[in-house]
Amino acid sequence: MSFISVALCKRLLWFGVSGLVFGFGLWGWWTPAQASELFNGYDYSDASYTGQNIFGATGAGDYTKKGWTWIAEASGTVTSTQLLFYQQYATMAGVCYMYVYDSPATPTSTLLGTATTTCPDIGTVGSRALVRFNFSAENGEQFDITAGHKYLFYMYATGLGASYPCFGTYTSAPLTPITYHAWKQATGAYFQGDHTVNAPLIVYGSDAPPPPPDEPAYTHFYNVWPSDGTVVTTTRVEISADYYMEALNIYDRVGFSVQEKSRTYQITSETYPGLEPGYGHVDIAFDLTASTSYAFWGVMLATPTSTGGFLDYTRHEFSVFAEPFPWITPQGINDLMLVSSTDELSYAECSISNLAGCFQNALMWAFYPDSDVWDQLAGVGDLVKLKPPLGYLSALSDGLTGMTATGTPAFELATSSPAMIYIFDPMRLGMTWVLWLLFAGYILRLVGGLHV
Amino acid sequence: MIVYLFLQGVWLVLLVITSPLRLLADATLPAGIASAVASANPYVAPLNVFAPIDVLIEVTSAVLVVETAVLSWKIINWVIRKIPGLK
User: Fold this and answer.
1) What would you measure as the largest C-alpha separation in chain A, in angstroms?
2) Which of A112, A226, A436, A442 is deepest in the core (most CB within 10 A)?
3) Does the CB of A395 have a partner CB in chain B at under 8 Å?
4) Distance of CA A81 to CAs A142, A271, A290, Å?
């Protein structure tokens, strides 16, 4: 009996280890193929990007309900019937829920799927703070779509004591074709087209003059530069726009407002150039503060009466992000997509014309474990890290984080940057290694002396 | 499936090994020690820039924890051996 058990254990061990090696090989061989297919047609080394925000915000003037959706797809244009949502930002904390609805007519009828994730701990942020969400594939962010339908994308968060919608957006046009959005890491400002409020059609980046006015107080921005999708690689932003204004009286004005994206809007710059009826041109230049998000408005106000009330106005809004998006490097995009779309191997078609698929499926069944098992093993430390005696160590370690965190020290020691870089930092790193190696030696000696 | 079963087996073994610990309540530092650590942090933080004081404390604490665990194990064994009829 004992012999059988030992033999069985040895065989299981052999199969398990062999399978691990083989499974990793299979994963490494398969994933790049899928990745190359996914990224085919997009050059991540390109300094510019193509794309547009396909979701217009529905919460006009309500910034808690707006957001952007990046949609990734193989060729840059959604020609297949799947959408891959992999990034969002919003003001939220706690548990985030994502809903996608489908309807050929109104975007509220059929629930395609939901996904939940743990929102990043973002603390108190402005309503335009950029927050990364990554809904992984197993949580169902990949949805089949139908050409010509409209889709509602909806997120909300719980965990702050109340549930509230972060934003609800829907496509304003049929989804084919759709270009995805890809950000490049660079220092500077990123312009993202947003939406218009109570305004006629805005023409981005077009040299064409606006169409003839057909409204009583017709105001119109056109040929705005930087236009939608422009990346400015400096922090000095110059914006100009052509406009058309039909009416002119004492209250007419045209100009730009630049506001920091915080809960309390602060106008930091606004100009009112002299106005002439008809076509005109306006410029503004301003400096961005690093790691701050801005919105930019081209504002046109007009009133056909002298009552002082603004009877009509046009506000063209798009955002100027001064954040460099450090997490969306070209490699980061790859990582995000890999995590969200190709982390799981999919079974191939098994048929008489594709026997290789059957072979692949058999190998996967035998040697490719479910990702839940890895998650299970990765969390084994959590089982005991709070239990004595390790729990005391964890608590002490948590307490010591105040030593290296942002707490205010009781006193300051004079340091110089070169001395820190060339002397103290390497010395500190070396001492850290020595201490942990000593501890490892102590544990090895202890374990070696055990007689179980 | 083979790898899956193997990993599940490893998981079960780990569950069995850690089961005595998991039965215990979560450990928390005595209030005095936690308070002392919090009070000392601002004073030690400037020195921590030059030398890894936090690592030193963590390693020392880890050694203490291990030594305490070994000592506890020896005491338990010693008590067990004192029970008449047991070897």
Assistant:
1) 103
2) A226
3) yes
4) 10, 46, 39
Mind telling me how many Å the CA of B81 is from chain A's nearest CA? 16
Instruction: Round to whole Å and give the CA distance between A42 and A306.
Output: 55
| pLDDT tens-digit readout, B27-69 | 888 888 888 887 887 787 777 778 888 888 888 888 988 888 8
Q: Is A446 helix (H, G, I), strand (E, B) or coil?
A: helix
A391/B26 CB distance under 8 A: yes
Interior/surface letters A240-279, b for 16+ CB within 10 angstroms, e for the rest: ebbbbbbbeeebbbbbbbbbbbeeeeeeeeeeeeebeeee
CB contact under 8 A, B7 and A374: yes
- Using a CB–CB cutoff of 8 Å, tell me whether B46 touches chain A: yes
In sequence order, which residues have a C-beta less than 8 Å from that of residue A199 and are 6 or more positions away? A219, A314, A315, A316
Q: Residue A116: beta bridge partners?
A: A97
Long-range contacts of A81-85 (CB under 8 A, 24+ apart): A81/A144, A81/A145, A81/A146, A81/A147, A82/A142, A82/A143, A82/A144, A82/A145, A83/A142, A83/A143, A83/A145, A83/A151, A83/A175, A83/A178, A84/A141, A84/A142, A84/A337, A84/A340, A84/A341, A85/A135, A85/A141, A85/A142, A85/A143, A85/A153
Length of chain A: 452
Mean pLDDT for the stretch of residues A308-333: 44
pLDDT digits (tens, 9 = 90+) for A27-41: 433 333 322 222 222
List all residues 6 or more positions away from A99 whose beta carbon is below 8 Å from its beta carbon. Answer: A111, A113, A114, A152, A153, A154, A155
CB contact under 8 A, B4 and A413: no
The rounded distance, in Å, linking the Cα atoms of A220 and A229 is 20
Query: How does the average pLDDT of chain A come out, rounded?
Result: 51
A221, β-bridge pairs: A243
Which DSSP symbol is given to A203?
A: B
For A92, other C-beta atoms within 10 Å of its C-beta total: 27
Residues 180-239 of A with CB under 8 A from B: none
- ipTM of model: 0.79
* A positions 411-440 inside 8 Å of B (CB): 411-413, 415, 420, 424, 427-428, 431-432, 435-436, 438-439
